[in-house]
Amino acid sequence: MKPALILLTSRIIKLVANLLKLACYPFHALFPGKRFTLPEAAPPLLATRKPAGIPRIIWQTNFTAEVTLPVYLNYLFNRLMAPHHAYRFMVTEARERFIREHYSTDILEHYAWLQIGAAQADFWRLLVLQEHGGVYLDIDAHLVWPLEGIVPTDMQELYITNRRGEISNYFIASRPDNPHLAELIQAVRDNIEENVIRGVYDLTGPGVFKRILGGRDVPTVSYRYACNQGSFTNEHFQYIDKAEGKWTRHQKSIEVVKRPID
């Protein structure tokens, strides 16, 4: 990869994406009820038989598959940037079915104790990558370079770092049965079980990655050269159909973990 070229490409993508986002305001003012459907599954746009250490699958989740135009444009852009990757998407109910089918009752129970969708999504992304492998992207995340150039075919895992140089979890690439993912899964389970951490960020999210993988010799890439957030879409367009809004607000009015009374 050529860092200068990637940075230039990233800036151009961000500029165009933000212009498209602005254009979506009058679109949704004229068509307030218009929504676009994200598919549960879609094949690669271009077939390839070249083997890869990390399965060529992009995973995403959201509280609904019916999304606004900016979110859909974000999805289409990622598909173009990863033409050799299949696409898999799960809504809230599908996430629970997946865990029920592939994991123990204990893990399903811990997952069910989470009352906020973002916390559930944090846990699910680890579980789905541990089972199937692939590349997880947040619903507002977009690639800034073709995915084949970000994740080489001989790579087994890759984590993204933010502006502070800390590992985040809005982009995760991994093979199945990854011991680092196993540690992260166990850490999230412990946090849910102990229930002393009140915020999603440290209970199930990037704070867990920072604590478990921070300082370790794991493959990382700066967001500048891999994946950014919030260029095509924003909180307004993402949560327009969700009364409780983003998790940062929702967690102020509800406990993240609610265990049943013994």
Q: Would you give an account of this structure?
A:
The protein has 262 residues and is α/β, with parallel strands linked by helices. It has one domain (3-42, 52-250): Spore Coat Polysaccharide Biosynthesis Protein SpsA, Chain A, CATH 3.90.550. It has eleven helices and eleven strands. A seven-stranded mixed sheet has the order 2-5-3-6-9-8-10. A two-stranded antiparallel ribbon has the order 1-4. The longest helix is centred in the N-terminal third of the chain and has 28 residues, at 3-30. The protein is globular, with a radius of gyration of 18 Å. 37% of the residues are buried. The mean pLDDT is 96.
Keywords:
262 residues, alpha/beta, Spore Coat Polysaccharide Biosynthesis Protein SpsA, Chain A, seven-stranded mixed beta sheet, 11 helices
